[in-house]
Amino acid sequence: MTNKQRMLNSQLYVANDPELKRDFHHGRVLTRLFNNTTEEQMDYRKELLKKLFGSVGEHVFMEPPFHIDYGLNTTIGKNFYANYDCIFIDVGRITIGDNVMFGPRVGLYTAGHPIDADVRIQGYEYGYPITIGNNVWIGGNAVINPGVTIGDNVVIGSGSIVTHDIPDNVIAVGNPCRVLREINEADKQKWETQKREYIAEMETD
Asked: Which of 151, 191, 197, 202 is surrounded by the most beta carbons within 10 Å?
């Protein structure tokens, strides 16, 4: 089994490997090119993101700068938005669903290092995947740790450190991140009412 296969299988591996170095270089070059684009190069940005990620849906927008290790190990669904300074450490696979929004400086960290110092300093690493469902909003400066799955229709509060799985249809906040409450019908009614008021006001202007 190669180091790349071990890495993607959540086993110990060594990053100082020719295949991984090539993949890493590929990701870093495309990320640098993307971060150096201007607002007049939106089509070029889309082209770079399609080359960078393992797969990417329609209407994906990322504010530069952002940072990623490989890119090839990350898949993103449709209607995705990431604000400034997001960081994806995709040693393990990162899977992001549809209609997902990230605030600034959201970090997805799949990488880990052995707790034992003697093994760690010999260059061994591992990675556990991160999965984010559909219709998720993650607030600024939140950190998603290795092995975490976030369900559908979830809001993660800003500054949260997510160390465990988060179920569907909840607001979760804190360090470590915990479920605050379920998202319910009252939430839907509140925001639908405000949307209708907005539409009515705009139609009368």
From this structure: 151
